Amino acid sequence: MQSNKLNTLDDQAELPLMRRAPQAPVADEVIFAQASMTAAIRLAANVSGLEEKEIYLPLKIDASHWTRILNGQAHFPTDKLDQFCDIVGNEIVLAWWAHRRGKGLHILETKVRRMLRVQEEENERLARENTLLRQLVQGKAT
To answer: In whole angstroms, what is the distance from residue 59 CA to residue 136 CA?
Structure first.
């Protein structure tokens, strides 16, 4: 006879977050002043405004292990860093790490954004041309 009890975190259904983390701006100086990645993780979690369980449960990290991570007694699972940033709604850890490595961050231009930028540039060129042609027709061009 099979038990209906769920014994592990893997057996449990994942609940969606009840609320979304607000986008709270943090000065670069504050981010870069963090002494370690653990401190950057703590800052990112604190800035999110989420309760700890709203962070570690979707990451499928045990509560006691999460506490050890925040206390610097355990390592954060690096394969969950991307999901962590999505959950907390910021990229503080990524910015801290990039700065630590002497790099900076910028958003990559996607194909759609590039197409939109090219179209906007073409629209601006056509608008300038249209204005010039109107001025010529009206005899106002200089």
So the answer is: 64
- The CATH homologous superfamily to which domain 23-100 belongs is lambda repressor-like DNA-binding domains (1.10.260.40)
End-to-end CA distance of the chain: 92
Q: What is the pLDDT of residues 29-68, one digit of tens each?
A: 999 999 999 999 999 999 999 999 999 999 999 999 999 9
Q: Judge contact between 69 and 76, C-beta under 8 A.
A: yes
Give the start-to-end residue ranges of the domains of the chain.
23-100, 107-142
40: helix, strand or coil: helix
Residue 77 to residue 74: CA distance in whole angstroms = 9
Residue 39's contacts (CB-CB under 8 Å, 6 or more residues apart) are none
What tens digit of pLDDT does each residue of 98-133 get? Answer: 999 999 988 787 888 888 989 999 999 999 999 999
DSSP secondary structure letters along 41-66:
HHHHHHHHT--HHHHHTTTT--HHHH
Q: Which residues contact 40 (CB under 8 A, 6 or more apart)?
A: 31, 34, 92, 93, 96, 97
